[in-house]
Design goal:
137 residues
Length: 137
C-alpha cells in the first residue's frame, strides 16, 4: 500500500464513519474514524520512504503497529505534535480522546453514540487530530 492509497483510505473511512454515526451505528463509526487516523499517520510514515533506499528494519518495525501514539513517533512527528499541543489546548484535548483508540474496538458493541460523536469530532473538527496530521502527510 502506498502513501496515496493510505490518504485515500483515510478520507474514505472518515466519510463512512459519518454515515454510520448519522445512521445510529456508533460502534462502527467509532472504529472507522480511529482507523482513519491510523491510515493518515501511516501515510506520513510512507512519505519518509525514498524509493531505492533500503529501509531501516527498526523504523519499519515501529511502523507495523496500530498504536496511534507509536505511529506519531514512527512518523517523526512526536516532538512537533507535543509542541503543537502545548500551544493549542484544543488539539491536546482532542488527542486525549483519540489516543486510546485500538483496532479491537471493532468488536466493542457497547460504544455509545456520545462516545462515537466525541471520537468523530476529536478526529475531524478544527484543531482535531486529522486536520493536524493531514498538514503533514
Amino acid at each position: 500500500m502506498n502513501r496515496g492509497e493510505l490518504r485515500l483510505l483515510s478520507s474514505m473511512r472518515v466519510k463512512e464513519a459519518k454515515v454510520l454515526l448519522d445512521a445510529g451505528h456508533a460502534p462502527g463509526a467509532y472504529y472507522l474514524v480511529g482507523y482513519a487516523v491510523e491510515c493518515a499517520l501511516k501515510a506520513c510514515i510512507a512519505r519518509q520512504v525514498r524509493w531505492g533506499d533500503f529501509p531501516d528494519k527498526a523504523a519499519v518495525n515501529k511502523a507495523w503497529t496500530h498504536n496511534l501514539a507509536s505511529l506519531v513517533e514512527a512518523a517523526g512527528l512526536k516532538r512537533q505534535f507535543g509542541n503543537d499541543q502545548l500551544t493549542d489546548p484544543a488539539l491536546e484535548i482532542n488527542w486525549g480522546v483519540v489516543k486510546d483508540w485500538v483496532p479491537e474496538s471493532r468488536y466493542d458493541t457497547t460504544i455509545t453514540p456520545a462516545k462515537a460523536r466525541d471520537m468523530y469530532g476529536s478526529c475531524t473538527r478544527p484543531h482535531g487530530v486529522l486536520p493536524w496530521v493531514k498538514k503533514r502527510w
